[in-house]
Design brief:
Layout (H helix, E strand, L loop, with lengths): L2 E6 L6 E5 L5 H18 L1 H18 L9 E4 L5 E3 L13 E4 H7 L7 H20 L3 H46 L2 H20 L4 H12 L3 H11 L4
Antiparallel strand pairs: 1-2, 3-4, 3-5
Length: 238
């Protein structure tokens, strides 16, 4: 069977390098399938078809609008309808008319939710196909690239969101622990102000700078370096 012989990259972008044995029937079939998949991916039409099917399934499963070339009536109560001849706009005075991606936002789905990504991808692919039909190749390529960026972003979010949120909770716990141990920024600023006032008073009474650092540090139970750092932040070096 195909064997992974090496790796490239590191961390979350690490990729395996796979080799095939032409003397093994299973390897031959796997390599042919890999080649077919590569060719399919290189076809704009096939790629659009695959992404459209995937995004549409996500929206249909959530019972949401999925047609990228239609406008939607989104009502205040959260219901929606495709804008067509059956819709009485006179009776929809409190509703809004929106394209697919904006309709999803009004229905409460964030842009970076699975449904939000799906709607945005469908809209971009629809625009790309229109540009392609109009012969605007550069614009179509730019739209296709934008769709690819969204798909990659959605995949990364789906794979690593849990780890990211776990890490963020750990980081926030660390920040809270630091605040408990050392106080808030306001607390630290107040302490520095006290050091500075005491230092200035000591200097006014004839203390040398080094002696003043030590004296203030002893009063507040901190290191002379801490006092000196507070004075330095004021811009009073020495």
């Amino acid at each position: 069977m195909p064997k992974m012989t090496d790796k490239s990259g590191s961390g979350m972008t690490e990729r395996g390098i796979v080799t095939y044995d032409w003397d093994e029937p299973g390897d031959v079939g796997a390599q042919i399938q890999a080649a077919i998949t590569t060719v399919e991916r290189s076809s704009f039409a096939r790629l659009v078809q695959r992404l459209t099917e995937l995004a549409t399934r996500i929206l249909v499963a959530a019972e949401l609008p999925s047609g990228s070339e239609q406008a939607y009536v989104v009502r205040p109560d959260g219901t929606w309808a495709v804008l067509d001849e059956a819709v009485d706009l006179n009776a929809e005075q409190d509703s809004v008319l929106l394209p697919l991606d904006q309709a999803l936002l009004h229905l409460g789905h964030a842009p970076d939710s699975p449904e939000g990504y799906a709607a945005r991808v469908l809209r971009i692919l629809s625009v790309a196909q229109e540009q392609l039909r109009a012969g605007s190749m550069d614009e179509a390529m730019a739209s296709a690239f934008a769709a690819g960026e969204l798909v990659t972003e959605a995949a990364m979010k789906g794979m690593f969101e849990v780890d990211f949120l776990t890490g963020e909770r750990v980081r926030e716990g660390g920040r809270q622990g630091h605040r408990r141990a050392h106080g808030s920024e306001e607390d630290k600023a107040a302490r520095r102000a006290n050091y500075i006032r005491a230092f200035d008073l000591a200097v006014m009474h004839g203390f040398g700078r080094m002696e003043a650092y030590r004296s203030v540090a002893k009063v507040f139970g901190v290191s002379p370096v801490t006092v000196r750092r507070a004075i330095a932040q004021r811009g009073d070096h020495g």
